[in-house]
Design brief:
14 helices; mainly alpha; 38% helix; elongated; 3 domains
């Protein structure tokens, strides 16, 4: 156990498997070969791939922070010589666990899996793509549902997409993209910087689904959202995607939303106030009544012989 780690006590507040997990972290956190260190008294870096280096800090802030490493990395084959098998863990999907957890039924993991199987990622990369390509099981965090600052959550979610689609980011320098040319993928989009900072990639590149919190049916680029009115309107699809978590419980009996719900975006008609609506109707009603009262005597007077 890494007894010199000052954060172990804080990690124990979120997980009861901290001491058990230390058997894994003693190598995977700092990539140190403990055996050679004991013999030579020198730190010798293991030949671990980047994806195998998992820090305690990342893990104990992740969605899976309360779990034991061996809970996933266990080979269930009794004849296996290696009980901790990474391929076994990689072969699992989110639904292997979440589909059977009662508390998680709200999140509709069965519907998410069905959407994913129809997505362009699965259709074109069936053997190469899985849940973990986007959701690092050791570091992935739920941002959009818990975020106090929406731009930070948007940046985090977009970074997942851009980790593969580097050339899709129109704000990277050409040399950073490795193409030597300016990216043209989003050149058609007005105010590109504002869109990238205030909208998630998936808000335009997935099919809207009101039954799940985050849509997973990623569409081909030619089917992505391109009409301004689909977002900048009172019935904006953003209210059922990006702002879904904020609008749950905020919808009034007349279907209107409080201005706070969409404070980060301009949506035509979305910031209406019921009180102002009533006041406006009263004013228009009084004005109309005044006009009637004003012209009625004149009309009656003209009709007299």
């Amino acid at each position: 156990m890494q007894s010199d780690d000052k954060n172990l006590d804080s990690y124990r507040k979120v997980s009861e498997h901290v001491d058990e997990n230390e058997r894994c972290f003693k190598c995977h956190d700092q990539a140190i070969d403990s055996l050679k260190q004991e013999v030579t008294d020198k730190k010798d870096t293991l030949n671990l791939e980047e994806l195998q280096i998992i820090t305690r800090e990342e893990f104990y802030q992740s969605n899976h922070r309360s779990m034991a490493c061996i809970g996933c990395h266990t080979n269930e084959d009794p004849e296996s010589k290696d009980p901790a098998s990474e391929p076994t863990a990689e072969s699992r999907t989110c639904t292997d666990c979440h589909l059977h957890i009662k508390e998680h039924q709200l999140y509709q993991f069965a519907a998410i899996e069905e959407e994913y199987l129809q997505s362009i990622h699965h259709q074109r990369k069936t053997d190469e793509f899985n849940c973990w390509k986007c959701h690092n099981p050791h570091a992935d965090r739920i941002h959009i549902r818990n975020a106090e600052k929406l731009p930070d959550a948007i940046a985090y979610d977009n970074s997942i997409c851009l980790s593969c689609h580097k050339n899709a980011n129109p704000f990277l320098a050409p040399e950073a993209m490795g193409t030597g040319e300016t990216d043209t993928i989003h050149q058609w989009l007005p105010e590109k910087e504002k869109h990238m900072g205030n909208v998630r990639c998936i808000d335009c590149h997935t099919r809207e689904n009101e039954n799940i919190l985050v849509a997973h049916l990623v569409l081909p680029k030619e089917k992505s959202v391109r009409k301004c009115s689909e977002c900048h309107f009172s019935n904006s699809l953003l209210l059922t995607t990006l702002y879904k978590n904020r609008t749950i419980g905020s919808k009034s009996k007349n279907g209107l939303f409080n201005a706070m719900v969409i404070e980060d975006a301009y949506i035509i008609g979305g910031n209406r106030s019921e009180i102002l609506n009533v006041i406006s109707l009263v004013i228009f009603g009084l004005a109309f009544a005044g006009i009637i009262l004003h012209i009625t005597p004149r009309i009656l007077k003209k009709r007299k012989p």
